[in-house]
Specification:
With 458 residues, the protein is α/β, with parallel strands linked by helices. The protein has 15 helices and 22 strands. Helix 3 packs across helix 6 and helix 10 packs across helix 11. The chain starts with a strand and ends in a 9-residue tail after the last strand.
Length: 458
């Protein structure tokens, strides 16, 4: 998507690269023939394709912060294109880079990019203000602010990713950072955050739009509509949902800077090879929950194909688990490879792209379990029901006689699951499908409630 700026010099705009699997956006600022890329992911081909097709010369690669939700492609891109790799001062990385401080300005074509220290999502977080010629540092010449995980569209970046000891301090810093932006930047300034709708780095569901303006955020951003700092912080601290377990590995990978941008090979496995691989690997079945329930390879885990299935795979299984990817649609395999590549998962040992065709043709065993609706669950009144949603969701709308075990904690909380057949539900059936397959893998009898929570009988 091309982002135009009111009053910008000719040939100055930004290209927004959406990454739906993460709920993120990257931005290539173009002014004349010069380019500056902000917060790129590890699947760098899409950025390089645009640079090659337009003849844009990459001068700067900038990170708003050391990312906790994906592996950056910034270092690789900077090295390949001879660009400076710019990180906020204090980022504590182990490789050579160009540190940037609050107020520093970088030329890009006919404009300048000014760093604005906006701690809150992380301590060293920087936002980058694109300014018109001759107005650097003046504020009034701001065309856009690329706000990373600070000011989002109708939300702010969460402040709890670095541990409880920093959470309140960072939440207070976030309040001050967002207020600093609106105090220093004019109302028409475009706001281009990295984290957006679908990102687990947001404190609340961000709006479906991916950009905003300072004027709009004054009317809806929680850091700007709260009565005061204390009320904002209180609201934030009470509203943090769980975040993916693989986040713990993203920061260290980004500080090391050794991630490879090269795609891994995906050997296609025979049924015999699947059986051999399954001694150490887990088969990830990407088919829909109901189809999986009707028949699947014993011990496999169901993560239905979706725009963010890769994140759920990284969340549901221990880090570095060896994986066999199975789908009945070849395109899904490549999509998931890219999604997993973005979060540093390279432990795919093989793939199956024709579903169970070859497996069944050889007469190999499959297993199954029942699916049901909320109405059927109400009619049968089972004694053991697992709510696989986030604790915040369950707290608001829990059904009677259920135990809340988030889908990602099934293995570690198996002892808390009651006896007999386990009925599993969530909000839409997606997380329940993952949880049901994990319970079945642990030899529990399960029923998947493959239904929308709106259909429940209160």
């Amino acid at each position: 998507m091309i982002v135009e700026f009111q009053g910008a010099p000719e040939s100055t705009h930004a290209i927004q690269f959406a990454t739906p699997s993460l709920g993120d956006q990257s931005y290539l600022i173009v002014s004349g023939n010069d380019g500056a890329l902000i917060d790129p992911q590890l699947d760098i081909d899409r950025f390089e394709k645009w640079l090659a097709e337009t003849g844009t010369v990459l001068r700067w690669v900038l990170e708003t912060h050391v990312h906790n939700d994906y592996v950056s492609g910034g270092k690789v891109l900077a090295e390949r294109h001879g660009a400076a790799y710019v990180l906020p001062i204090g980022s504590d990385v182990t490789f050579d880079h160009s540190p940037i401080r609050d107020g520093d300005s970088l030329p890009v074509g006919l404009c300048a990019i000014r760093a604005m220290h906006t701690p809150g999502h992380t301590p060293h977080h920087m936002s980058y203000v694109l300014e018109s010629p001759g107005t650097a540092g003046a504020g009034a010449g701001a065309l856009a602010v690329f706000s990373g995980g600070s000011m989002l569209v109708g939300a702010v970046g969460r402040s709890d990713l670095l541990g409880p000891e920093l959470t309140e301090q960072l939440a207070r810093a976030q309040y001050r950072s967002v207020n600093r932006m609106v105090n220093e930047l004019p109302d028409p300034t475009i706001v281009g955050p990295t984290h957006g709708a679908g990102s687990f780095c947001s404190t609340s569901p961000a709006a479906d739009t991916t950009t905003s303006t300072i004027a709009l955020e004054k009317t809806r951003n929680p850091a700007l509509t709260a009565i005061d700092e204390d009320s904002f912080v209180s609201e934030q601290l009470s509203g943090y949902a769980l975040f993916p377990s693989y986040y713990a590995h993203m920061g260290p990978l980004n500080r090391e800077g050794n991630a490879s941008a090269e795609p891994i090979s995906l050997p296609e496995l025979t049924p015999h090879q699947i059986t051999d691989a399954a001694t150490t690997a887990i088969v990830i079945d990407l088919r829909r929950g109901g189809i999986f329930a009707a028949g699947h390879i014993p011990g496999s885990v169901n993560v239905p194909m979706s725009v963010d299935a890769g994140a759920y795979i990284g969340w549901a299984l221990p880090w570095k688990t060896e994986l066999v990817l199975l789908s009945d649609r070849p395109a899904d395999i490549e999509d998931i490879r890219v999604q997993l590549h973005r979060i540093g998962v390279r432990s795919i040992v093989g793939v199956v792209d024709d579903g169970l065709k070859k497996w069944l043709a050889e007469g190999r065993p499959v297993t199954s379990y029942r699916t049901a609706t909320f109405r059927e669950m109400a009619e049968e009144s089972p004694s053991t029901i697992v709510d696989a949603r986030d604790p915040l969701e369950s707290r608001i709308s829990a059904l009677p006689h259920t135990v809340n075990i988030h889908f990602s904690r099934i293995a570690e909380e198996l002892a808390h699951v009651g006896p007999g057949t386990v009925w599993v539900h969530c909000q839409s059936g997606y997380r329940a499908a993952i949880a049901a397959s994990l319970l079945a893998r642990a030899d529990r009898e399960v029923v998947l409630v493959d239904d929308d929570f709106a259909n429940r009988a209160d």
